[in-house]
Amino acid sequence: MGCFSCNGTTVLEENTDNNFTKANDQPRPGKAKSSPRGSRKVLDVKNEDVTKRKQSNSETDGLDSSDISKDEKTSSTQAQTFTFNELAAATGNFRSDCFIGEGGFGKVYKGHLEKINQIVAIKQLDRNGLQGTKEFVVEVAMLSLVDHPNLVKLIGFCAERDQRLLVYEYMPLGSLDKHLHDLPPNRKRLDWNTRMKIAAGAARGLEYLHDKLKPPIIYRDLKCSNILLGEDYHPKLSDFGLAKVGPSGDKTHVSTRVMGTYGYCAPDYAMTGQLTFKSDIYSFGVVLLELITGRKAFDPTKDPKEQNLVAWARPLFRDRKKFSLMADPMLEGRYPVRGLYQVLAIAAMCVQEQPTMRPAIADVVTALSYLSSQQYDPSSRNIQNTCKNPHSSKIMTKSSEDISTGHRGPMEG
């Protein structure tokens, strides 16, 4: 879940310190007014974090609870507060056999909370990391106010002395990257139908942030490791510590310090620091390519020309005869040829270099919802046309020539 600058070097996950920082970036001052649903503990943490940032001249920026307004269309539940002792007991004092993962901001443990009689995931943030404290504030503020089937649910938190912990619903199948990359022999390979289901669900979660939430939110950290899978591979977006309120009115972008994950970060954002909703669309396109190809967004073990997934894919987009080369070998040819062409067209549009050429998330959702509804039968090697949708079919009609030249297709707004 760690973040690093998009100029090609890792800040947290690769143990380097070559962090991209714009000289004119300044930390955003803390707001005195309280959140419509924020708890006193959350606000105390925010004030403490602002003080630390001033002392260290840090350049963290993000979303705080007063940035989000709750209206009649937003259903939410108040996050519960837990004591550190309760969370320690839930994990057997954070035993190693309860450990399920680690990111740049802290470690995640599986536990059972007797207070609510529920299996949960508990993230213990790094007590020495200012970014971890900032992420804590942002995540509690945001997830306490949103509710969507494709966003992970925040159950509660602990802000006790120097301890910062977040309690989420437990997602039994883990993160998407664990099902695509470096698979152990006993792990089930994702079939075509499951991949399309995950893609459509993740797109709906992003659509909620962009189009349904008021004000809209730019996720800024969309990647396979932040897509968690529940029962029956139901996907949910997680880790919102880098989220930013999107531009409003006549503004076209938000100027901010460049943060994200190399391989997923939109080139326009990496070069200018101008964050837009289309920055998320680029990241989603990379995730879609990972689902199609089984490759990592960036893989230093490969030949230099193949390390960056988008750079590897772009020449192949120009030749329809090479589309089959982009399919994950783990699929063993079990995919609909037409469906492969259509989802590659969507991915190609999402990763266009020019942000204005990328589609709106609503169009992506429409197209992927249609594709995921077309259940592929491996025994017949055909798609069962159980849900004919002329509008979606039109959206996905884009020739390989359009993909390679960057011409605007019917999916692009």
TrEMBL record:
Keyword Lipoprotein: yes
Alphabetical list of Pfam families matching this protein: Pkinase (PF00069)
Subcellular location: Cell membrane
Gene3D superfamilies listed in its UniProt record: Phosphorylase Kinase, domain 1, Transferase(Phosphotransferase) domain 1
The Protein kinase domain, residue ranges: 94-371
MF term (GO), any: kinase activity
Binding-site residues for ATP, renumbered to this chain: 123
Taxonomic superkingdom: Eukaryota
Biased composition (Basic and acidic residues): 41-52, 399-413
Entry-linked SUPFAM superfamilies: Protein kinase-like (PK-like)
Signal found in the keyword field: no
Topology class, membrane: Lipid-anchor
Protein name, UniProt field: Probable serine/threonine-protein kinase PBL7
Organism encoding this protein: Rhodamnia argentea
